Amino acid sequence: VPELPDVEASRRWFADHAAGRRVERVVVVDASVVRNASARGLADALRGRCFREPERLGKWLLCWTDGPGLVLHFGMTGELAAAPARSRRHRWDRVIVELDDGTEIRYRDLRKLGGAWLVLGAEDATAILGRLGPDALAVRRAEFLKLLARRRGGVKAALMDQSFVAGVGNLLADEILWRARLHPRRRVETLDAEERASLFRALRAVVRVTVERDDAGEWRRSWLNYVRGVAGARCPRCRTPLERTIVAGRTTWFCPSCQPPPPAAARERRRDPSG
Ligand SMILES: [Zn+2]
């Protein structure tokens, strides 16, 4: 699932492959992924335009040209690929942009939960991206703490809410909470000042390190997500077997020792004779 670090990798990749290049032609293989324009409309708008430096906001990639922009969201399975012009297509290639250097940039997506949008300018882009919080890679401590102070409810749901902080998905949220030693069922309003500060430090560290990694998809060996989903996985920090549950509608991994449950949940557990 593409999260901020994956989209940031795509942004850098797009900058290397397409910035400064002219669009020869656009082939919309599957018109259903173009969300706000016709296939013809998108192709006509981009043809002859020159790509500039792309921009990333949260999990969105904004590919600006010297005219309109192409906005991409990668959903669950989207990615970018390069191929020689007019070479054999992959069956999940949805939109193909042929550049003037004889390569094609291909937006490839199996499940089509993301998509492509044509935007004429920053205002258009804002309307499509919706209300986004500050980017998780760029947010500063004071701003984060201020936004957190206004927040109520589950801390994991808050982290994954793009209008709170943009770019954090399920995996990053679990990693951040594990690192901050906060149980995923904690509620924001119960966090003390030290826990809030620790949450911010964990967010910053996890996002920065994952963005700087060399190979997409690699987690640090010492991190929760390195062993996530592995049978019998133990906490990389204390060796306690990890637990899996559902929080905010998503599969959630945590260490019951490093991330003690909130007081209410602890009482529940004591009452439960099976626990
Ligand atoms: Zn642990």
Short note summarizing the structure:
The protein is of the alpha+beta class. The strands form 3 sheets. A 4-stranded antiparallel sheet has the order 1-6-7-5. Strands 2-3-4-8 form a 4-stranded antiparallel sheet, with helices on both faces.
Helix content: 25-40%
Approximate shape: elongated
DSSP, total strands: 10
**Secondary structure tally, helices:** 9
- Sketch the major β-sheet: 4 strands, antiparallel
Physical arrangement of strands within the biggest beta sheet: 1-6-7-5
User: What ions, cofactors and ligands are bound?
Assistant: zinc ion
Question: Mind explaining what this structure looks like?
Answer:
The protein has 275 residues and is an alpha+beta fold. It has nine helices and ten strands. The protein has a four-stranded antiparallel beta sheet with strand order 1-6-7-5. A hairpin with a 3-residue loop joins strand 6 and strand 7. The longest helix is centred in the last third of the chain and has 20 residues. The two termini are 33 Å apart.
Task: Pick out its properties.
single chain; binds zinc ion; elongated; 10 strands; 275 residues; four-stranded antiparallel beta sheet; alpha+beta; 9 helices
